[in-house]
Amino acid sequence: MSNPVFSNSDVFGEPRRTGARRPSGGVGTAPAPGYGQAQHGQYGAQAADAAALENMYNAPSATTADTKRLTYDDVIVKTGGLLAVLVVAAAATWYVAPGLWPVGMIAGLVLGLVNAFKKNPSPVLISLYAVAQGIFLGGISAMFESVSNGIVLQAVLATVSTFAAALWLYKSGRVRVTPKFTRWLLIAMVGYLVFSLVNVVLVWTGVLGGWGMRGGTIGILIGLFAVGLAAASLIVDFDSIKRGVEQGVPAKFAWAAAFGLLVTLVWLYLEFLRLLAILRGDN
């Protein structure tokens, strides 16, 4: 499917047929009145068009910023801004009202679903999602920190390191996103989601205690598997952003790309937080 920006453009789209008809008349027919002036005007127009084309070709090439296309800088700026909003909300919740984390969790879930199914990204709703997740992470992190001193810093460092490693693996070509890789990741994520939901229900209903089926050695292995899934999801996110830039999608979709990265980073951080707690023997 062709890019609508090019197909609808006066320069890159299909040329429009313009220009006046030549006067009709056979051999020996006298030119119509004013024909010489019209012919002169036509040549003048052609010369003007040629000069305009020459100026266009000599002009510097338009950049993605000039054409309002998605750029990597757009994604970096939007992602950094959302992370800043999340950190500020998390810090405020940590020190003021850590007990609000359930509110942030529910609001983040609702806003996450709304943003995920919107065709056009909404900067306001995505920013509100960052605030909600900040409230959730600030409260839940304070709770973990009260039990295990230093665990939050370790989880943050692990998240940043994994993000950098995933980006390096993708940029270096050591990991390639193929249809087979994407299918495997989707199946694994669905299976992990079902397992997590079952485990949460069993813990909340009192059937299992502590971490439920995620305790002990099995819990450590499952935690490592979950971290691997989140890291693989980051690589798929990078590939999606790359394709968006190469295909020239509108710049507004930088918000959608930043939202996707934020969702994966929040998931990765929570998995590290849980894995470190299990390794420390916290119930």
TrEMBL record:
Its domain of life?
Answer: Bacteria
Q: Where is region (Disordered) located?
A: 1-39
Q: Which UniProt keywords are given for this protein, alphabetically ordered?
A: Membrane, Transmembrane, Transmembrane helix
**TM region positions:** 75-94, 100-117, 124-144, 150-170, 182-206, 218-241, 253-270
What Pfam families does the record point to? BaxI_1 (PF12811)
Q: Does the keyword Transmembrane apply?
A: yes
* Record field: compositional bias (Low complexity): 30-39
The Polar residues compositionally biased stretches are 1-10
* PANTHER family named among the record's database cross-references: CONSERVED TRANSMEMBRANE PROTEIN-RELATED
- Protein name, UniProt field: YccA/Bax inhibitor family protein
